[in-house]
Amino acid sequence: TVFEHHEYDGHEGVHFAHDRESGLHAIIAIHNTALGPALGGCRYWTYQDSEAALTDVLRLSRGMTYKSALAGLSFGGGKSVILADPRAQKTPAQLQAMGSFVESLGGRYHIAEDVGISVADVEVMAERTRHVAGIRAGDAGDPSPATAFGVFCGIRAAVRHSSSLDSLRDVPIAVQGLGQVGMELCRLLFGEGARLFVSDLNPERMKQARERFDAIPLEGDALLDVDAEVFAPCALGGVINDLSLERLRASIVAGAANNQLAEARHGRALQERGILYAPDYVINAGGVINIAHETRAGGPTYDRARAFQAVARIAETLEEIFRRAQQQGIATSEAADQLAVARVAQATHRAA
Ligand code: NAD
Fold first, then answer.
1. Ligand 1 center to residue 326 CA distance, Å?
2. Strand 252-253 vs strand 109-112: parallel, antiparallel, or unpaired?
3. What digits encode the pLDDT tens for the residues 201-250?
4. Exposed, middle or buried, 273 (CB in 10 Å: 0-12/13-18/19+)?
5. Using a 6 Å cutoff on CB, does residue 68 contact ligand 1?
6. Which of 56, 82, 201, 224 most suits a substitution to test ligand 1, by most atoms within 8 Å of the C-beta?
7. Candidates 3.40.50.20, 2.60.130.10, 3.40.50.300, 3.40.50.10860; correct CATH number of 2-63+75-125?
């Protein structure tokens, strides 16, 4: 059952929907709302089965709680998944049904875009619910550029910490996934003179990265074998696992993907190999920080420069986590979890 599920962590609510008319199968997981309403994107994905979807949504929603806590935001953690194939099955009726599902939770969960769900899709959901984020209220719109900028600042901080370099000039960086975040990250890294290696399942995107950023495209998981300073996972989760760790040659893992560690113990495994890990939910918080600015500004007064200044502070948070991990001899993933859990506990205590 959900309660015995290995990723269940006292979630406040796990909600299932099946809308027969539109064919929507979806799960919304609300992990914790001590700091505010649960905020998190919606993933549209072809899962192997509903068990795999549940595992994903439980982990992702907890990650959102930790992410907002460490970004200093007044949001809790939640996430949703739609179980389907985006190319074959996505319809406006399904997205509207998802909007109604979100609305039925009365504002405890706010939905945004994620893998397989675009800003335009969220706009369709918004026909049925007010509880959406990351759409074109004000000028904020798509959170991906802010996410990419946060990852870029985080990579600079990690490189500075591990090799005292103040510049990324000629630093070899391997970017896995050239989607909304990965491509923009490449643009920023190229602007700083980094040497890029890239991979994507879509050959057209690899071609684009080669033409625009002089990137060296590599097929499959060959990126793991590259002598890069940084490996930046910007595709899907679970990339740091027993198999990839045997091959990974980078000194730093710092990228946008959620749930990069296949299991929590892989954080310790990275530390034991002397690889500096920028915890995923810390470095990829730029999008949610941007959304918080959009919400706070109440729309038209959204100030992009101020929002991006706030995103840049991800570097300071990471530096604190690197320092704590070093002082206590623990993995950076453990240091980040400790800090996040303490912040949520404080908020829960204040509310009680
Ligand atoms: P996206 O769907 O736009 O891009 C993902 C890209 O990865 C696609 O181009 C896809 O072809 C590629 N890909 C998939 N599997 C791959 C593989 N095995 N090897 C190489 N490439 C592969 O998604 P996105 O919005 O760019 O997000 C990327 C990651 O960052 C996701 O894990 C997402 O959850 C996370 N994230 C995104 C945001 C955001 O603001 N978009 C915020 C936080 C975290």
1. 30
2. unpaired
3. 999 999 999 999 999 999 989 999 999 999 999 998 899 999 999 999 99
4. exposed
5. no
6. 201
7. 3.40.50.10860
Tokens of 104: 């039925």
Distance 52 CA to ligand 1 centre (A): 18
Interatomic CA distance for residues 51 and 57, integer angstroms: 10
Handedness of CA 291, 292, 295, 300 (dihedral sign): negative
pLDDT digits (tens, 9 = 90+) for 124-135: 999 999 999 877
Question: Dihedral sign, CA of 173, 185, 181, 64?
Answer: positive
Ligand 1 geometric centre to CA of 260 (Å) = 12
Q: Is the CB of 236 under 6 A from ligand 1?
A: yes
